[in-house]
Amino acid sequence: xxxxxxxxxxxxxxxxxxxxxxxxxxxxxxxxxxxxxxxxxxxxxxxxxxxxxxxxxxxxxxxxxxxxxxxxxx
Length: 74
Fold this sequence. Notes:
The chain is mainly alpha-helical. It has three helices and no strands. The chain has helices at residues 2-20, 26-42, 49-65. Helix 1 crosses helix 2 (26-42) and helix 2 packs across helix 3. The radius of gyration is 14 Å and the shape is elongated. The relative contact order is 0.16.
């Protein structure tokens, strides 16, 4: 039952973040949202969609901002 509730929590969050982070693969976004949900529960924080989305967004921003710049053609 908990797994089903968790999936329904994560799907809308993943969809919203996928629309925002077009360069990040969808499976990476799904994994990030699942990790954020697990992290919130581990810390004893209520894993509401808003909290999970905020945590996942910060992680995704770190992924996007840490990517090396494209190489210039020689």
